[in-house]
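Quick illustration, no need to memorize.
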Amino acid sequence: LYICMNKKGKLIAKSNGKGKDCVFTEIVLENNYTALQNAKYEGWYMAFTRKGRPRKGSKTRQHQREVHFMKRLPRGHHTTEQSLRFEFLN
């Protein structure tokens, strides 16, 4: 199943995700969170309330907390030591 957005901004599931309503553009925000903007309905974002319920895309804006997502590595996936090192610039 694919997560899609209908014309009212409601998140729905579809078995065929080939339409633009099922495509979300990943936007990295200034605060390093990620927002997912719908390709068909520009300015509408995937969002969930604190209780985990989906919000209508038509009621979302990029600055809202419900729109901000954080990437996590899958369970059992370890980062290499090299990626944990900081590089200092003079």
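The helical segments are 81-84.
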